[in-house]
Amino acid sequence: MQKNKNILQLLRKVFGLLQKKQKWGFVLVLLILAVSAVLNQFTPLAIGQLTDHILDQPGFSFGSILPFLLFILVVNVGNQLIQIVRRLIVEDTATRAEKTAREKAVHSLLSAPLSYFRQNMTGNIHGRLNRSLDGITKLVKLVFMDFAPSIATSIAAIVVIFSQLPTIIALLIVLVIPVGGLIVLRQISTQKGIRVQLLQTKSNMDGTMVELLNGIETIRVYDSVDFECQRFSSQSERLRAREMKHHRAMALYDGLKFLNEAVFHVLVIGASVLLASQGVISVGTILTAYLCFTQLTGPLRELHRILDELAENTVLANEYFRLVEIPQDFSYLPVSESTQVPSCNAIEIQGLSFSYPENPDRIILNDLSLSIRPGEFVGIAGPSGCGKSSLIKVLTKLEQASGSLTVGGKPLSDFTRSQLADLISIVPQSPFLISDTIYHNICYGCKRQVTLEEVIYAARQAHIHEDIEKLPGGYSFKVSEAGGNLSGGQRQRIAIARIFLQNPQILILDEATSALDNTSEKYIQAEIEKMQRQNGTTILSIAHRLTTLQNCDRILVFDQGQIVRQGKYQQLIDQPGIFQDMYKGILK
Ligand SMILES: Nc1ncnc2c1ncn2[C@@H]1O[C@H](COP(=O)(O)OP(=O)(O)OP(=O)(O)O)[C@@H](O)[C@H]1O
């Protein structure tokens, strides 16, 4: 009962992916089906009539059967034309449903909490998404294109069977349905678990595959191709063994279904011949009974296949809705306060504590308090793993911390994602480049229209213009995935060029110049300081290369999630402590 309810709920959700026009299309398809199902039944009736009333007539001429043959031809051609129209409607519905489903899934994934991506491998998510989308499309097609016609044709066949044949033969014919149904139900229930396992194993392999492709250079340098192939091969073997187990079971059930049909086939022929020999039915009725049986077993076989595929695609569709129903990240939840963005860019932090949701016992930021003036240039230093990047994640609302954090007097929790994007720009440790032109990479995230001149100006400020000019196509040069055809320093400078275009009120630099040579770093540093002076930009800069922080108004020294010291660059170097140790290279 619960199972049926779940399937109905699932089908309702799939139906929800269709637009109004497609729902009407569904009604049209049902009408077409009803017509088609009736037309399908004319052939056995016509053949029975032909045998009993035409062939028996004295002085039979071939001309007298021509109208019958023409009728059968018209009925069959008409039926095929109807099928083509139905197919086009169904394909249109399925492709539209897939488009809607894909868009919803992409939106859901891009708004999911970051912890979801730490718990699920990229390839795994991608593999599951693609397979489950296939499942949704197939489910739509099965329900629209296959399921209803088979049901309609089976019902029409049953009506004809009971109206045209003696009850005993009719009952014998339709008994093939419940027996076959029981076999299919057993097949579905025993195979569900293994289907879920197969899906998981395939997704895990997708995850491993993408992980390997991302590490291709390391794999080559470490010469670990054989090792990785072996690792992959054992996963593949487990998958193969599971698939074979599934196929063996499926073959067994197919055999049982075939046996069921074969037994009833023989029973129907035997019983009708017996009745004809006793004069209860005519010879033509034997033929009609035989054709009615095949008329029923055709769609019935289809129904068995459909029910099985329905079960398989239900597993995929459930997976799809799990992806679509991932709760939104906290930062997309509606904000409670006014939508006004403050004009001031001061940052106030009081009693801020933070742990990653996967590991709540490990405190990363510990009761942090801090005031940053508007337009202040603050450096952040500290040993690796002390929580510098985590603080930036909290500030950019990527992670949620307890305590108070306000920007321009307004709590961070009251900022929408869009407002924050207008306010804060970040150059992260590993810049995100899209596989598009240099021009589009520099414009990335900019909501206003940007001219090529502006992009060139920003690129000059980021000391990358000359490099771009040397690339084939210049600003039209196509960046490959993750910026694979650019150097680390070029990738960083493209990300830096973005901030000059965006001119943010708050700028966060997380190891933004770590891959740059000294000349480029100094040049960019000067441009950033110019921007700060002109626009009053508040800047937070994390750097391991301490000289990067030389011109900061203040440097905060972090250790184990707390600020242990703060001051100017020279002051901190002169004082014994973490900063001095880092300066001397004692501490990393
Ligand atoms: N998702 C996570 N779950 C649990 N702990 C995490 C997670 N991500 C990072 N950490 C831990 O949080 C701590 C702080 O990490 P963070 O990246 O903020 O350090 P950092 O000071 O920026 O280091 P680095 O200078 O090396 O970049 C580290 O010890 C790290 O192991």
From TrEMBL:
Pfam families: ABC_membrane (PF00664), ABC_tran (PF00005). Coiled coil: none annotated. It comes from the Bacteria. It is a multi-pass membrane protein. InterPro entries: AAA+_ATPase (IPR003593), ABC1_TM_dom (IPR011527), ABC1_TM_sf (IPR036640), ABC_transporter-like_ATP-bd (IPR003439), ABC_transporter-like_CS (IPR017871), P-loop_NTPase (IPR027417), Type_1_exporter (IPR039421). It is found in: Cell membrane. One of its GO terms (cellular component) is cytoplasm. Keywords: ATP-binding, Membrane, Nucleotide-binding, Transmembrane, Transmembrane helix, Transport. Residues 27-312 form the ABC transmembrane type-1 domain. The chain crosses the membrane at residues 21-39, 59-78, 139-162, 168-185, 262-291. PROSITE patterns: ABC_TM1F, ABC_TRANSPORTER_1, ABC_TRANSPORTER_2. Gene3D superfamilies: ABC transporter type 1, transmembrane domain (1.20.1560.10), P-loop containing nucleotide triphosphate hydrolases (3.40.50.300). GO terms for molecular function: ABC-type transporter activity; ATP binding; ATP hydrolysis activity; ATPase-coupled lipid transmembrane transporter activity. Residues 347-585 form the ABC transporter domain. SMART domains: AAA. This is ABC transporter. It comes from Solibaculum mannosilyticum.
